[in-house]
Write a structure and sequence with these properties.
heterodimer, A: about 425 residues, 2 domains, 11-stranded mixed β-sheet, two-stranded antiparallel sheet, 14 helices, B: about 220 residues, 10 strands, about 35% helix, about 30% strand
């Protein structure tokens, strides 16, 4: 039997049983719709978390950290106590010597008690907060901030984290009744930095105290999350002036590989040196993927129910058509022909259900996004859209729908193909 | 030229604990252009024999050659193709697809054997069986005789070598039966081998040969 004939016959059969077909299509559409919404939500939230909250790095970049012990909720810093090592200048040099590492960006720990006061011109009131800073290589931040991120003897040029800005705008500003800030409004803001004493650390780690003037020169994704980052030279100058001396240590080191394919080998070399690779983004991604996977089971369950409905529907439909199928066999239809026609008919129902399901899912996502924009209050990292509906998800959902329909129809189809012609004609 | 031959066909079916022998060593030959009547009481195995000879039932022992091809050992696909191409069936119960039109029912075999049947060919066979103007009707809109003519048209449209008929006039009045008989004459005239299982004396008497089947045995 030619494929065109088979398609025509399957379409005619589906149309002839349109009430059953409609129920089957609705069942499949429901399953696919639920699946699409759940996976789109998972992907959307995952993307928002990785891009905005965790701020994952490019694929050719890794962040080296001292070894730590992960106890689930608690992460114990390891260093030499756990057989690892503190990151010092020697470590940075050895990391730079790893094959296929093309750039090394150490993040200098500034172990000084610091406090910041200021912001009256911008916020209408002067605020104080303990300040945590580190030193970053100028070239790491330069693409975001430009040449302003360079040591300056007149003031401390600082960059703040884009996450800190988001946290401030979405929660602190509304609580304190202060205005929302943008990177543009922040640049040029100056404030006082008290060096050598803070509320939390007291004077621990400081040789002397003093006051410096700081100026915000930009916002960077590399800046320390809850604090500010200084150019490396500035940070070293601050440590030399106020610190107790001692060797410089680094909280982490960003390594840029020649290509993403080199990252696994570099990661192994890093671990061989008693250090670890920051996997926060990977762990967050795994967590979100796991949660999405579990939630997707609901959609899959609906799809399985739809497949069972199709199976039931096809069993009944084919039983009603038993004599007709016997006639088709008598005039030359092979078992394969009948199997093909039945499975094609199921594919049509699955494809129709898949298309409607994807469309319904897309509409639900759009409505949910529009509702969230209006009804949900602002919160940190609130995404513009909670859903991501890439083309491959629509395609996968469509394929899943066709597969579910075919699996549902498989047993009735096989039973039909095995039909004894003489028995069918005797009905 | 022999178009259909059967040699020592035995067909048994399980009836509870015991096996019942439906066909018991049946052998026959049918030549081109020959019309043979198969007679016998109800339950003698006439329909079963037609099913075996027409490649509808493969559960038997013995040998059947259809248009020179032995049926034994053929795949389902090959049997189906042979059935659709070389055999025409006419059943007592017509066996038409109720939701298809007359023309669609007649063209049905061509959908499975890959041949492109021209609409003119269907129209021609519709005219030949006297159903002009009824091509778009559905079976339930036709009389019993008209339905049987649709079934005959379907059996003829592929120009088969062998036509097997199972009580083709069983549900028809004498006048309609006579018209059907005329169609059969035209068929044999065209070289088709015709085997008709029947209780109709008129058909049996007008056939070249008469085979009697009783208790699964041919005489």
């Amino acid at each position: 039997m030619k494929l065109g004939e088979m398609v025509g016959m399957a379409a005619a059969d589906a149309w002839a049983a349109r009430a059953r077909s409609l129920v089957s299509v609705v069942g499949i559409a429901l399953g696919v719709g639920v699946l699409v919404v759940i996976v789109a939500l998972g992907l959307g939230v995952r993307g928002a978390v990785l891009d905005e909250v965790v701020q994952r790095m490019p694929l050719d970049t890794i962040e080296v950290v001292p070894k730590s012990v992960n106890l689930g909720l608690i992460k114990l810093g390891g260093g030499s106590l756990l057989g690892g090592r503190v990151i010092d200048d020697g470590t940075v040099t050895s990391l730079g010597a790893i094959a296929d590492v093309v750039a090394v960006y150490p993040k200098l720990e500034v172990k000084l008690p610091l406090g910041a006061r200021g912001g009256e011109s911008l916020l209408g009131k002067s605020l104080y907060a303990d300040l945590f800073v580190n030193g970053l290589p100028e070239e790491l931040v330069r693409t975001e901030v430009g040449v302003a991120f360079a040591d300056n003897t007149d003031y401390l040029p600082v960059v703040i984290s884009s996450q800190l800005l988001e946290l401030y705008n979405s929660s602190v500003a509304s609580t304190l009744g202060t205005p929302q800030l943008t990177p543009q409004t922040l640049i040029g803001i100056e404030f006082d930095v008290w060096v050598g004493r803070s509320l939390i650390l007291g004077q621990q780690g400081a040789r002397t105290t003093g006051r410096e003037r700081a100026r915000v020169v930009g916002v960077s994704r590399h800046a320390v999350k809850l604090g500010a980052s200084l150019p490396m030279a500035t940070a070293r100058r601050l440590l030399a002036k106020y610190g107790e001396g001692g060797a410089a240590t680094y909280g982490s080191v960003i390594l840029k590989a020649r290509s993403a394919a080199d990252v696994p080998a570099i990661t192994r070399a890093v671990r061989d040196q008693g250090l670890d690779v920051d996997q926060t983004a990977q762990q967050a991604a795994d967590l979100m993927s796991g949660a999405t996977g579990i939630a997707s089971l609901v959609g899959l369950l609906v799809l399985v129910l739809a497949a069972l409905n199709i199976a039931h529907s096809f069993v009944a439909m084919l039983a009603e058509r038993r004599r007709e199928l016997g006639i088709l066999r008598a005039v030359g239809a092979s078992r394969g022909d009948l199997l093909g026609v039945v499975l094609l008919q199921a594919s049509f129902l699955g494809a129709a259900g898949g298309v409607f399901g994807v469309l319904a899912g897309w509409i639900v996502c759009a409505i949910a996004d529009a509702s969230a924009a209006v009804l949900l209050p602002d919160f940190p990292f609130k995404p513009k859209s909670f859903f991501a509906l890439p083309w491959w998800l629509a395609l996968a959902a469509l394929l899943a729908a066709v597969l579910a329909a075919c699996l549902g129809a498989a047993w009735p189809a096989i039973r039909t193909a095995r039909l004894r012609v003489t028995d069918a004609l005797a009905d | 030229m022999t178009l259909l031959s059967a040699s020592n066909i035995v067909k048994e079916v399980r009836d509870g604990e015991r096996k019942a022998r439906i066909l018991d060593g049946v052998s026959l030959e049918l030549a081109a252009g020959e019309r043979v009547a198969l007679v016998g009481p109800s339950g003698s195995g006439k329909s079963t024999l037609l099913h075996v000879l027409g490649a509808l039932d493969g559960d038997y022992t013995g040998e059947v050659r259809l248009a020179g091809t032995p049926l034994e050992g053929l795949s389902d696909r090959a049997r189906s193709r042979l059935r659709g191409r070389d055999v025409g069936f006419v059943f007592q119960a017509y066996n038409l697809v109720s939701r298809a039109t007359v023309a669609e029912n007649i063209a049905l075999p061509s959908r499975f054997n890959g041949t492109q049947l021209a609409p003119e060919a269907v129209r021609e066979v519709i005219e030949r069986v006297g159903l002009s103007g009824k091509a778009d009707r559905r079976p339930h809109q036709l009389s019993g005789g008209e339905r049987q003519r649709v079934a005959i048209a379907r059996a003829l449209v592929q120009k088969p070598k062998v036509v097997l008929c199972d009580e083709p006039t069983g549900n028809l009045d004498a006048e309609t039966g006579g018209k059907i008989l005329q169609l059969f004459d035209a068929l044999t005239g065209a070289g088709v081998a015709l085997l008709i299982a029947t209780h109709d004396r008129a058909i049996a008497d007008s056939s070249r040969r008469e085979l009697k089947l009783k208790d699964g045995k041919l005489s």
